[in-house]
């Protein structure tokens, strides 16, 4: 065969190979596989790095807080900041994927225009599993936390459910232990006396302001009767024409007739107070009492909380004693507890919170509301057994007013009876992270611990 024929045949075969399409898919797939896997793997590697950074941020936040407390208390000197920061961080950071970890701590002394600060900065990296194919064997990350002390002062109101159903499923005892642990957690944030104040507001249908306030100018007695039964031998009998056991104020508020003329003997008063008038929204506002219309109704609820309201204090023994004295009785009116929690944070009658006069400081006002039920009644609405949407509506307005005043609200609901989630508590919380829905008493401690950690982080700026 001549050379020209061979060349022609080879040329034809090459042309056919070039025009063939059967193998192109495999070739293209092989070429595209590397970048596709790299992109997918990059997302996984970046996610791991993000998790490592989140864990670092939490550890740095806690490290900065502990350093500032140690410095203020004189436990360490400024020359020991770096070594102490490393020690704290090592104990707090548990992400095992991170490597090349490095942290540094810087102290800035207080001046005439600013408070003392500790800044803790950290960095690290994680070895990549996929991106190393593209030439990136490691991904770096970093975070910073700054703790400023002497500037953020806490005022916390614990509004705690004392209703009868709290006696079930060990709820009351669990609440008492969790609340006292929260008190310890928050009180430990105080560098100086008064840095942290806590009030305790036990509630059911009413609150107990204490008989020591019997002559207070902010009380009204025009719907108070020291007795509620015509004959104590027949407790099903009542002075209220509605046929329910109600106090004078509750009976009239519900539109019934009170068939008794009371003898006003204030020595018989049990310290109970019910809702203010709602005609001008006094039951859901912080208007200070200055007239009969703005005053608080003395009441004689037989289920009045045994634990009296404790105004803001940093006497931690008194706080814990109040929590220990709580008992379970009565029906649920979260609105009145929440309003008195708000009152306890205000420098006005009736509870007259301590002055907030330290210049250069930020006062953080917080309410923690815990309840095991749904609203069943107040002075006007509800049968004290079934859920009352009217009471919920009053409470919703109150929650909005409190949050608009700058107060942060945490709400905790425990439902052990299958009643369902409250229609108002999730929205009452300042945001979704501050609402806790529980179904077991064993969860109360964890919820309060998380709240304590969240409140503590209000001292950290990033």
Automatic annotation (TrEMBL):
<keyword id="KW-0812">Transmembrane</keyword>
<feature type="transmembrane region" description="Helical">
    <location>
        <begin position="25"/>
        <end position="46"/>
    </location>
</feature>
<keyword id="KW-1133">Transmembrane helix</keyword>
<dbReference type="Pfam" id="PF13400">
    <property type="entry name" value="Tad"/>
</dbReference>
<keyword id="KW-0472">Membrane</keyword>
<feature type="domain" description="Putative Flp pilus-assembly TadG-like N-terminal">
    <location>
        <begin position="23"/>
        <end position="65"/>
    </location>
</feature>
<dbReference type="InterPro" id="IPR036465">
    <property type="entry name" value="vWFA_dom_sf"/>
</dbReference>
<dbReference type="InterPro" id="IPR028087">
    <property type="entry name" value="Tad_N"/>
</dbReference>
<protein>
    <submittedName>
        <fullName>Pilus assembly protein</fullName>
    </submittedName>
</protein>
């Amino acid at each position: 065969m001549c050379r020209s024929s061979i060349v022609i045949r080879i040329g034809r075969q090459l042309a056919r190979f070039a025009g063939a399409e059967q193998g192109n898919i495999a070739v293209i797939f092989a070429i595209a596989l590397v970048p596709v896997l790299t992109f997918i793997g990059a997302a996984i590697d970046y996610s791991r790095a993000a998790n490592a950074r989140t864990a670092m941020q939490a550890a740095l936040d806690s490290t900065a807080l502990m350093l500032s407390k140690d410095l203020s208390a004189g436990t360490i000197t400024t020359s020991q900041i770096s070594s102490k920061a490393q020690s704290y961080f090592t104990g707090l950071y548990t992400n095992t994927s991170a490597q090349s970890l490095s942290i540094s701590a810087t102290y800035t002394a207080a001046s005439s225009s600013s408070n003392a600060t500790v800044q803790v900065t950290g960095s690290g990296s994680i070895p990549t599993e996929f991106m190393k194919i593209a030439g990136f064997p490691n991904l770096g990350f970093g975070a910073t936390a700054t703790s400023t002390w002497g500037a953020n002062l806490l005022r916390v109101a614990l509004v705690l459910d004392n209703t009868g159903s709290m006696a079930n499923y060990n709820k009351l005892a669990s609440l008492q232990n969790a609340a006292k642990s929260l008190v310890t957690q928050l009180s430990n944030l105080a560098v100086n006396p008064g840095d942290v104040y806590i009030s305790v507001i036990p509630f059911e249908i009413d609150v107990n302001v204490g008989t020591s306030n019997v002559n207070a100018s902010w009380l009204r007695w025009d719907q108070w009767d020291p007795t509620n039964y015509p004959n104590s031998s027949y407790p099903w009998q009542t002075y209220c024409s509605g046929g329910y056991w109600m106090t004078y104020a509750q009976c009239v508020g519900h539109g019934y007739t009170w068939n008794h003329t009371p003898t006003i003997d204030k020595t018989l008063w049990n310290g109970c107070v019910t809702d203010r008038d709602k005609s001008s929204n006094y039951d859901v506002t912080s208007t200070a009492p200055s007239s009969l219309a703005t005053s608080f109704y003395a009441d004689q609820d037989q289920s009045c909380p045994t634990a009296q309201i404790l105004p803001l204090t940093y006497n931690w023994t008194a706080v814990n004693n109040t929590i220990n004295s709580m008992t379970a009785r009565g029906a649920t009116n979260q609105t009145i507890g929440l309003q008195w929690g708000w009152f306890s944070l205000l420098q006005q009658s009736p509870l007259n919170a301590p002055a907030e006069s330290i210049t250069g400081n930020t006062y953080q006002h917080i309410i923690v509301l815990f309840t095991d039920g749904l609203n069943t009644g107040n002075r006007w609405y509800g049968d004290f057994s079934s859920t009352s949407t009217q009471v919920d509506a009053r409470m919703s307005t109150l929650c909005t007013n409190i949050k608009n005043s700058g107060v942060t609200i945490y709400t905790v609901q425990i439902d052990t009876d299958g009643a369902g989630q409250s229609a108002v508590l999730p929205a009452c919380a300042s945001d979704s992270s501050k609402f806790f829905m529980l179904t077991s008493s064993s969860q109360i401690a964890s919820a309060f611990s998380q709240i304590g950690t969240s409140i503590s982080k209000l001292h950290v700026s990033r």
